[in-house]
Write a structure and sequence with these properties.
Blueprint (H helix, E strand, L loop, with lengths): L2 H12 L27 H7 L4 H19 L1 H11 L4 H12 L6 H11 L6 H8 L13 H29 L3 H9 L4 H26 L7 H6 L6 H4 L2 H10 L4 H27 L7
Keywords: Cell membrane, Membrane, Transmembrane, Transmembrane helix, Transport
Membrane topology: Multi-pass membrane protein
Protein name: Sugar ABC transporter permease
Length: about 290
């Protein structure tokens, strides 16, 4: 039963890896892959010496860290809160409402965000003006200072419900006698959460944290591309993936794009290995 999966992974993930060599060639679509000349580390040097390098790396790291610091604990907190809900119908409704946005594509989600923040009849501007907090509508998606908050908030809203399911399943597997014993000792709900629930699900939390750190340079693509259409936002929104799309793909600099992708992949593997090594000290690791 495993063999079909292994064959598919080999065909679609390992065989195409010869394309990595494009990063070390000056690829010309007319000459073809074989006839394109070797240039060594030319494209890596071009990226590292580019004036855009510092800005792109800063945006990538900051946005990724914000998503990690805000987005990673959010489903854990939601799972802890839902685990304490005893009204079955209310619990199912909350789960459905928080879980539904995960199935919406970023095209739909970005459309909702743009509509809510719109200058013309946008809900946020109407509320701010109605409450007397703003004299005139604010064009939120044209102000760089607001972009990171908008991006992180929309990501949390979209993914928090799906992420909480895994942690709810882990919480459901905790021995209920532990809570009964803690309650007899006078521990309240908050102490039970910190002394029983969190330590019990810590192996799952650590595994997901390792994977999140390994994906640290995946700061986003679709969400940023759709929400940061205004060039005024590029100085705070341009990350590795969007930079590759704009400079490498749209300008047909395929070797340059491949070099950046390879650099990102190597750094991601190193981050994953370091995170796994550090997690091993706690007794939980991927390998």
């Amino acid at each position: 039963m495993v063999w079909p999966g292994i064959v598919l992974i080999f065909i679609f993930h390992y065989i195409p890896m010869y394309g990595i060599l494009t990063a070390f060639k000056d690829y010309n679509i007319l000459k073809g892959f074989a006839a394109s000349p070797w240039v060594g580390f030319k494209h890596f040097e071009a990226f590292f010496s580019s004036p855009d390098f510092g800005r792109v790396m800063r945006n990538t790291i900051v946005i990724a860290l914000l998503k990690l610091l805000v987005g990673f604990p959010a489903p854990i907190v939601l799972a802890l809160m839902l685990s304490e809900v005893r009204h079955g119908l209310f619990k199912r409704i909350v789960q459905s409402v928080t879980y539904l946005p995960y199935f919406l594509s970023w095209v739909i989600v970005s459309g909702i965000v743009i509509s809510v923040l719109s200058v013309d009849n946008g809900t946020v501007n109407m509320v701010l003006q109605g409450a007397g907090l703003a004299d005139e509508p604010i064009n939120f998606l044209s102000v760089p200072e607001y972009f990171w908050a908008i991006l992180i908030s929309s990501n949390v809203w979209k993914d928090v419900g799906f992420g909480s399911i895994v942690f709810l399943a882990a919480i459901a597997g905790i021995d209920p006698h532990l809570y009964e014993a803690a309650e007899m000792d006078g521990a309240g709900k908050l102490k039970q959460a910190f002394l029983i629930t969190l330590p019990s699900i810590m192996p799952v939390v650590v595994i997901f944290l390792i994977l999140a750190i390994g994906n640290l340079l995946n700061a986003g693509f679709e969400d940023i591309l759709l929400l940061a259409k205004n060039p005024l936002l590029w100085r705070v929104s341009d990350v590795l993936d969007t930079y590759v799309y704009r400079i490498g793909i749209e300008n047909m600099r395929y070797s340059f794009a491949t070099a950046i992708g390879l650099f990102k992949a190597v750094v991601s593997v190193l981050l994953l290995a370091i995170a796994n090594q550090l997690a091993r000290r706690s007794g939980n690791s991927l390998w």
